[in-house]
Amino acid sequence: MNDKEKSDLIKRAIEARAFAYAPYSGFSVGAAVLCADGSVFTGCNVENASYPCGICAERTAAAKAVGEGRRDIIAAAIVGSSAEKCTPCGVCRQFLFEFAPDMIVLCGDKDGNYAEYKLSGLLPEGFGPGSLG
Q1: Residue 79 backbone dihedrals phi, psi, to 5 degrees
Q2: pTM to 2 decimals?
Q3: What is the mean pLDDT of residues 86-104?
Q4: Which residue ranges form the domains of the chain, and what is each CATH number?
Q5: For a Cys-Cys bond, which of 40, 41, 45, 120 suits 64, CB 3.0-4.6 Å?
Q6: What angle do CA 88, 104, 55 make, to 5 degrees?
């Protein structure tokens, strides 16, 4: 990915963050996943009064891609609503690992400043399809 593609993916995540439903935590998150053909799917976090029923932005975006028949996710961008860069939670790391252990993960703050990681670095020794024998 070049710098423009990374910036565009962060921008799409910021746009998705505007739709977050976070009345309990007040922490809005947006995500965008990039597929091999250049298509982008976005998502936001959706909280629920029964807290475990909520869903994170990155799982929403990835599930939308899968729901449209895509399995070739090559990158993800996640932005939160604070000055800290927003990294994916453990559940989201595992969820994304299913599709591309070496995908690029861009973790951004509320202003779009970001750090770049490889998913396998965020989830070393991850459990994936190959782990099933």
Answers
A1: -130, 135
A2: 0.95
A3: 96
A4: 3-124 (3.40.140.10)
A5: 41
A6: 30
